[in-house]
Amino acid sequence: MAEQGHYGGRTEPTATRQGLYACTSDGELLGSINTRDAAPLLEVLERGLEKWRERPDNAESPDVPETYPVDPRLGWSHPENGLTLKVTVRDLPRDSDDVDPRHNIDFAWFTEEEVRSLAPDDPLPGRTWSAPDFFIRRLALRHFIDTVRGQSPGWRDENLKEGEISLTVESVENGCIRLRMEGRIHLEGEPSFDSNPFSGMTVDKPRGLKLDLFGQVAYDPLRRSFEAFDAVATGDRWGCTTYNVRFDDPGPAPIGFAFELASDNPIERTPPASIGRNYFL
């Protein structure tokens, strides 16, 4: 199906088929484009809808397999009874106070066992302890990534220069434990010197983030689940990578990350962008 689209038959500059495609269930392409802009995408979708309406009725059912093979390296299964956070990243206002509407989203997954280890054994008001290492490292290495404008690789262990997150019991009301979360994250990485195959430019530069984190969460020990999770991390980012489109804006500049409980909408069960990189280790 992708071979019918905008990169059909193309091996240069790469073999990518990245983009947005509209097609029938039996593989007839109705339209495709590779863009981050809503207006041209809308035009493609509208033209695709016109083609769909003009198609003759076809009584034959397409040959759709009942199941599809899953790459064993990827943990696609949503962690039932675990914790799923919706992560939003965006640039914050600069000196001009202009607001840039561009943003990106991701989802952070934690298993049922991991959720239990986040909760305090003895929830006395005022008690403070450090969040588990897996929690700090997963947020830092897999989700504190500048993807506001495009794609960017995750971080390596050695890139985490500082990672501290503490949890403090603020109150216990009607069996619900309310916690304050505070922390600081500092990440730095060297460039890969990869060239962008589309532009031919080598735009990678040393990159980094320095963030302060603050949040309020509520845990129900009877249900063994978080009933609320609202946190923000703000600070400066700098540098750029091959595909994150920061070549004209390397910073330093302010950036913000927001974390909230994901809904039950199937869309918000989308696997984390970095699910294939030993995510749960």
Please indicate the percent range of residues in DSSP E strands (runs of 2 or more). Answer: 25-35%
What fraction, in percent, of the residue positions are helical? 10-25%
What is the 3D form? globular
Low-confidence stretches: none
Rounded radius of gyration (Å):
22 Å
Overall mean pLDDT stands at 89
Per DSSP E runs of 2 or more residues, the count of β-strands stands at 10
Largest sheet: 8 strands, antiparallel
Helical segment tally? Answer: 3
State the strand order across the main sheet: 4-3-10-9-8-7-6-5
The SSE order reads: EEHEEHEHEEEEE
Global structural class? mainly beta
First-residue to last-residue Cα separation: 36 Å
Notable characteristics:
3 helices; two-stranded antiparallel sheet; globular; mainly beta; single chain; eight-stranded antiparallel beta sheet; 281 residues
Describe, in plain words, how this protein is organized in 3D.
This protein has 3 helices and 10 strands. The chain is mostly beta strands and 281 residues long. The strands form 2 sheets. Strands 4-3-10-9-8-7-6-5 form an 8-stranded antiparallel sheet. 21% of the residues are buried. The model has no long low-confidence stretch (mean pLDDT 89).
Topology:
Blueprint: E1 20-23, E2 29-33, H1 38-54, E3 83-91, E4 103-110, H2 112-118, E5 128-130, H3 133-143, E6 160-173, E7 176-189, E8 205-220, E9 225-240, E10 253-261
Antiparallel strand pairs: 1-2, 3-4, 3-10, 5-6, 6-7, 7-8, 8-9, 9-10
In short:
The chain has 3 helices and 10 strands; from the N terminus they run ββαββαβαβββββ. The protein has helices at residues 38-54, 112-118, 133-143, and strands at residues 20-23, 29-33, 83-91, 103-110, 128-130, 160-173, 176-189, 205-220, 225-240, 253-261.
